[in-house]
Amino acid sequence: AKEQGKNNYQIYHSSMNIQTYKTFLLEKDMRKALLENEYELYYQPRLDAYTGRIVGIEALIRWNHPEWGLVSPSEFIPLAEETGLIVTLGKWVIYEACKQNKTWQDLGLSSVPVSVNISAHQFMQKDFIHHIDRILKETGLTPKWLEIEITEHILIENEQVAVTTMQQLQKRGVAIALDDFGTGYSSLSYLRFFKVNTIKIDKSFIDDLSIDSEGFLIVKNVISLAKGLHINVTAEGVEQEAQLHILRRLKCDQVQGYLYSKPVPAGKMAELLRRGILP
Ligand code: C2E
Ligand code: CA
Ligand code: CA
Ligand code: CA
């Protein structure tokens, strides 16, 4: 009976844990990738909606996997969040983005803030501010050229800590953007807690942006809400000329999307910065 129990256990074990094992292997690969320099930041410009001038740059991580090629962050960021690797990976992202932005400035390219996406777990680390300070000091980047993109998830973990951290960032001159605005349940109530510098209207609303659509009404009102609160508005995922025209009519400040540029490697971003204004 004892023997049988053991066998049963083994069968159960092997069939139920394939997924866990895959996850384990992937996590191991992701850690190794950090040492092997397989991660790379791509950059996407944020533009003035009226002039096409580059007013910001968002850093977006990619994984150059030796066998799989370029892996998108939606494939590995969720696992990095689950395992806690996001803290180490996230530090690398901030460092790399700040260093790159400083390099561009030193080359005499126009100075714009670089935005970095920060997971809730990373943002809520006790020493998060300390790391930001250290990275800014090490790279020599002036705080106002760094922006932190967060989602409302950070408030769910611990409101008080989140608000304090945001205040400390802004005190230093680091800007805060509220990403994916409108997708969560508490986007609006978030605005009562804290005055962010920028709201990024989620792509899903922009996708549905034709006159007399629901999306149109929502975007129109989010923009006027933001204006009333003196918060900048960026529309994400702008792909079509028609969307840009509607956004201009609605007085949206800034746009980001494939219409102007996909995320590109640093070298290509330097070229775009050299042009300054995109057609
Ligand atoms: P996000 O922060 O909302 O970034 C915008 C995503 O939309 C990016 O996908 C970008 O490439 C894509 N995008 C931009 N314009 C367009 C457009 O016109 N059309 C379409 N279809 N897509 C557009 P990406 O680079 O795959 O990143 C996906 C998500 O992964 C990001 O969403 C962000 O939440 C996360 N992420 C990316 N890099 C990092 C990072 O360094 N750290 C953390 N924590 N998360 C990251
Ligand atoms: Ca973002
Ligand atoms: Ca977003
Ligand atoms: Ca998103």
From TrEMBL:
Domain EAL span(s) in chain numbering: 23-277
Domain of life of the organism encoding this protein: Bacteria
Name this polypeptide is given: Diguanylate cyclase
